[in-house]
């Protein structure tokens, strides 16, 4: 395959097929399975988000390509099992988008009706129908387990709220937050618990606290993964500024102490405030 011409999606599919061809393909690629590739799929999705947040268009182009490769990879492995092909993946998502947008692609009456509130969830519900046993699927059954934990917490809460299992305002959510914080403090202070028992109690109470924090975010219509990424970026930016200030004094963080680094941290915060 010439390397100097602009490649197409068909070329990418052919490249993956060649990499997975026994005898002539790549030994590493031939060893991979759905399970071994899945972590890379998640990683590439995060790298796409990172490029978007940095507003780096060249990086976004590259990261979207890496993410597309993951789809091609999984589809190739499925085709080898005669389960489905990349073309089937494309057809399935195209059909789904047509089905879920009757206000754009439907009949004249559906287009005239527009996007009525709740139409997306109703269509999704009709598509999923009942479970494989013939019994109705649970309210939370279609929330993927593999989602990042904070994101999954919010989705679980959204699903429960849709059937009325929700606090009406932030006030009881904050009350619950204080309650869970108190239970965590109690678990920390519990002198009777030790070893695995204490660790299990701490994990449970901290998990409950995080779940309520996700609920606060949901009530405020915030995306917790996104705002935590912003907080991480802010911390990284400010700590790097502290390191630069220390370097100007001829020292590293290891040669400093908490009091000095905290003072420099406050200087960095004040300088950022003046720039706003």
Observed structural traits:
extended; Helix Hairpins; 13 helices; mainly alpha; 276 residues; 71% helix
Concise account of the structure shown:
Helix content is 71%, strand content 0%. It is mainly α. The protein folds into four domains: 9-98, Helix Hairpins (Orthogonal Bundle); 100-128, no CATH class; 149-222, MazG-like (Helix Hairpins), CATH 1.10.287.1080; 226-275, no CATH class.
Fold and architecture overview:
By secondary structure, the chain is an all-alpha fold. The chain folds into four domains: 9-98, Orthogonal Bundle (Helix Hairpins), CATH 1.10.287.1080; 100-128, no CATH class; 149-222, Helix Hairpins (Orthogonal Bundle), CATH 1.10.287.1080; 226-275, no CATH class. It has 13 helices and no strands. It has helices at 9-19, 27-31, 34-53, 57-80, 86-99, 102-105, 108-113, 119-128, 149-162, 170-189, 195-219, 224-248, 258-275. Helix 1 packs across helix 4, helix 9 crosses helix 11 (195-219) and helix 10 (170-189) packs antiparallel against helix 11 (195-219). The longest helix is centred in the last third of the chain and has 25 residues, at 195-219. It is extended, with a radius of gyration of 25 Å.
Architecture blueprint of SSEs:
Layout: H1 9-19, H2 27-31, H3 34-53, H4 57-80, H5 86-99, H6 102-105, H7 108-113, H8 119-128, H9 149-162, H10 170-189, H11 195-219, H12 224-248, H13 258-275
Helix pairs in contact: 1-4, 3-4, 9-11, 10-11, 12-13
Number of strands: 0
CATH homology superfamily name of the largest domain? MazG-like
Q: Given the helix and strand composition, which structural class is it?
A: mainly alpha
How many helical stretches?
Answer: 13
The secondary-structure element order is HHHHHHHHHHHHH
Average pLDDT, to the nearest integer? 90
- Gyration radius, in Å: 25 Å
CATH domain class name of the largest domain: Mainly Alpha
Low-confidence stretches: none
Main β-sheet, in a few words?
Answer: none
How much of the sequence is in beta strands? under 5%
By CATH, the architecture of the largest domain is named Orthogonal Bundle
Oligomeric state of this protein: single chain
Note the overall shape.
extended
